[in-house]
């Protein structure tokens, strides 16, 4: 009888345990639902994207977000703020004692929309971002730190850029559209002798009104393929010990030399109230623009007749020079990248004008681009 009772109790224990295991199954691994378009998100660089996944079986879960492999958050939700125009991969990992789950999403970041002109838009430059005068004959009167505001609006004043590399960067209050012909112009200073400057353009990709996120594209001109044209050129100017001594320079082609000091009314070529002892400029170096046409030992400096046919600032002999507007006109379609390859731009927001010729032409001294503003052709002509 005792054996029967023991057998019955053992059978009852096995039955109870079996029922207990069936009624309390193991906790499953987490499951992630992250709603997204089939091809991923398309957003503007000015936008923010909040990712809010739904996670099942998340008891005791921890979260890890990775942006292109870099850990960026451990919260359940992640706010993505793009910094670059590119495609990003975002990966969410959810971890519990029962297991892990992963879900990824692609995000393509696009440029900010253009800012078309309105009835209140100015046809002219409205803001100066940077102005750097390169060592030259007007340095003493200008001094470093001059803000270049003479380039704003429709003004009769003009901006001196100094020797090779000196530049000014400026912006419109709207996007200048790339039309079928000329799109914007750069006014010349009153004169007749061309001192060509290279013009660059940039699109405001992130929409913040600053030339801080895009690439400067050179506008190709007639001397683009000239054998003496050098892109990615660089010159470092060094301050002399005394004002009467010449500024020395050295470039990235292994060349060096000095500028002419004491030109005109004793002006120095360095801004003597500046703290810098050296200054470096980068850009495109154009071929010489002037030659001495006097064959009798004197000096008669004039422009080469077969150079700078089009595509440069302060270029009076160019086919793009409008004598009525006293300006050179530019086509955004001539933009090229750093490798010299054409780029397609629907419009631009910023321009940069830089002294392009590195030449001391006798009594003229350094060839220095001098300009007095810029304008949107569609709003002026």
TrEMBL record:
Coiled coil (UniProt feature): none
Keyword ATP-binding attached: no
Domain of life assignment: Bacteria
Pfam families, A to Z: PKD_3
Keyword Phosphoprotein tagged: no
Signal peptide: 1-18
Domain named Bacteroidetes PKD-like: residues: 30-95
Keyword annotations: Signal
Listed InterPro entries: PKD_3
Name of the protein in question: PKD-like domain-containing protein
């Amino acid at each position: 009888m005792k054996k029967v009772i023991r057998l019955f109790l053992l059978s009852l224990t096995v039955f109870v345990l079996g029922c207990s295991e069936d009624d309390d199954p193991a906790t499953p691994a987490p499951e992630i639902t992250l709603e997204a378009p089939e091809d991923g998100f398309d957003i503007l660089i000015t936008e923010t994207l909040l990712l809010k996944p739904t996670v099942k079986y998340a008891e005791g879960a921890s979260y890890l977000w990775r942006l292109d492999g870099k850990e960026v958050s451990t919260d359940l939700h992640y706010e993505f703020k793009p910094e670059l125009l590119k495609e990003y991969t975002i990966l969410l990992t959810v971890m519990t004692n029962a297991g892990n789950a992963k879900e990824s999403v692609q995000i393509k970041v696009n440029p900010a929309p253009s800012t078309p002109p309105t009835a209140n838009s100015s046809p002219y430059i409205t803001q100066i971002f940077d102005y750097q005068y390169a060592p030259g004959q007007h340095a003493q009167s200008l001094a470093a730190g001059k803000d270049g505001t003479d380039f704003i609006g429709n003004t009769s004043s003009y901006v001196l850029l100094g020797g090779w590399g000196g530049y000014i960067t400026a912006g419109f209050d709207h996007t200048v559209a790339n039309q079928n012909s000329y799109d914007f112009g750069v006014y010349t200073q009153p004169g007749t002798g061309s001192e060509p400057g290279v013009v660059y353009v940039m699109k405001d990709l992130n929409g913040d009104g600053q030339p801080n996120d895009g690439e400067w594209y050179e506008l190709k001109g007639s001397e683009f393929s000239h054998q003496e044209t050098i892109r990615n050129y660089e010159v470092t100017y060094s301050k002399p010990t005394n004002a009467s001594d010449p500024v020395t320079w050295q470039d990235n082609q292994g060349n060096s030399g000095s500028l002419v000091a004491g030109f005109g009314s004793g002006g120095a070529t360095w801004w003597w109230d500046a703290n810098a002892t050296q200054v470096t400029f980068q850009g495109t170096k154009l071929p010489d623009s002037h030659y001495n046409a006097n064959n009798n030992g004197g000096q008669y400096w004039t422009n080469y007749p077969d150079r700078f046919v089009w595509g440069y600032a302060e270029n009076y002999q160019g086919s793009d020079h409008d004598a009525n507007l006293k300006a050179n006109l530019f086509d955004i379609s001539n933009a090229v990248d750093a490798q010299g390859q054409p780029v397609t731009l629907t419009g631009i927001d910023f321009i940069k004008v830089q002294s392009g010729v590195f030449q001391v032409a006798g009594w003229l001294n350094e060839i220095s681009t001098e300009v007095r503003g810029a304008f949107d052709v569609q709003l002026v002509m």
